[in-house]
Amino acid sequence: MFGKFEQNPGSIGGFLLSHDRGRVMGDVINLRQARKQRARQDKDAGAARNRTAFGRSKADKQRDQSVADLAERRLEGHRLTPFAPDDDGKTPA
């Protein structure tokens, strides 16, 4: 083993080998700790994706609901005939 050997940045565990005046030296990495660290990083990345997808505050949800309610009231206000269900609970044709 001559020269310098390095591990890929994305891989887990292993040895980093280098040639130093005829000796081969390596940094030993605890594979269990490396796996746990990688799992934590993956979990954190997933949590960040979920925060962007679902992380809306209560105020944001209420504002969106009030905007939708206002739009519905405006639409109802422009109807030619008022909307009222028939006696049997069905909408008029």
From TrEMBL:
Residues 57-79 have a biased composition (Basic and acidic residues). Residues 33-93 are annotated as: Disordered. It comes from the Bacteria. This is DUF4169 family protein. The lineage of its organism: Bacteria, Pseudomonadati, Pseudomonadota, Alphaproteobacteria, Hyphomicrobiales.
